[in-house]
Design goal:
Number of helices: 2
Largest sheet: 3 strands, antiparallel
Helix content: 25-40%
Number of domains: 1
Length: 66
């Protein structure tokens, strides 16, 4: 079976300088490939990863028959 991700989401830490520029709190954020923030701030990367799994569950696709 193949795993299919519905969206490509990732986490990254926004530090003080960038957070001041963006007008957001420092912390871990979930973003799309485009860079758009989806969720955050989260306390740490592990919390952000848990949220990614909630927002973007992995779907197991059935094998194709030949």
């Amino acid at each position: 079976m193949t795993e299919i991700s519905m969206q490509n989401l990732a986490s990254r830490h926004v530090k003080a300088e960038e957070s001041a520029r963006l007008g957001i709190e420092t912390g871990w954020y979930i973003h799309k490939v485009s860079g758009t923030f989806v969720s955050g701030p989260h306390a740490n990367d592990a919390d952000a990863q848990k949220k990614i799994l909630e927002l973007n569950p992995v779907v197991i696709a059935p094998k194709r028959k030949a």
